[in-house]
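Chapter summary example.
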Amino acid sequence: MKKSLLLIVGIATLMSCNSTPEGFTINGELRGEIPEGTNVFLKRINNNNQPEEVDTAMVSNGIFQFKGVSNTPELHYIFVDKLTGYTAIILENGTIDFTAQKDSLGFAEIKGTYQNDIFSNYLKKSRDLSLQAKSIQEDLQMAAANGSSEASVMALKDEMQELEEKYQGFEIEYIKNNPDALISALLLDRAMSTKTISSGELQTLYEALSQEIKDSRPGKRLMEGMEALKRSEENEKNTSVGATAPNFSGPNQNGENIALNELLGKATLIDFWAAWCRPCRAENPNIVAVYKKYHDKGLNVVGVSLDKTADAWKKAIADDGLEWNHISNIAYFNDPIAKMYNINAIPAAFLLDENGVIVAKNLRGSALEEKVAELLN
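The structure predicted for these 377 residues follows.
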């Protein structure tokens, strides 16, 4: 009987040691003179890219605590009322220990869970490299102030360039070595946004991530971004010089549906613009002049507006005397035609030949008239 009891106790102990935590606890300690009852805020960035309060705790004798459940690891932030700065922390089930000086929240010590240990390790190495960069920058400023030789300045610039390459390599290696770390997804997301790695390398690194990280919010956002990047690259290829312009259709000012392939002339200008766009409005007189001079010889213009209201769009057409065909979905930069043509800024224009092949992009002023005249002989 005694052996049976010992066996049961042993199994129970083993199970408790290996069980997955059912929730998280953040045990926080703030060092320095913190008034009793000071609020501590746990926040995250919501889908609209805005800070969102998740929970609030109060400081008692320099101590505070948060408790809850985290389904997947997710980046959160700790703010302290009336103190500057904040601390990034990865919320995951388990016990997280947080210690910070009141005047340096950004350098808090966070440990106790797997994701936070990896995150803290990354931050330490990243800060070391940042300090090296700061030192070189200070040397450059001193060299400029002291009138150092050009060779000395160039040597420092080369050193900075090498450090920047080292930093980029450090982050890529960190992603490769930590496929089950949330920071890897966050770093990949940033690399995708800044276009510091190729889409092929991005895909390879993403596929190596653990399923838990792929299922996290940053992992899902990364996947959505990669899909959008693929579409963008495909659209860029389809709208490059030498490609046949993708056909599109949409409503004109009267609500009638018209299509590009029905409007092609011997030369056709697709002009992306909007009533609210000052550079667009400034260019309109030039397009009007070219259109009046060459329309009878075969030039057509198709205006695609990224306006927010139909009234503003129609008024601008009348005010600027734009006598050609117009299309608008009144959808701003969410316009499907703009997305098809990878339009991220306006004015933007595509000049087509009689076969609908793109022969030039974003021509303005005299350059537009010269190319139109060339196409029409």
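To summarize the output: Confidence is low (pLDDT under 50) at residues 1-18.
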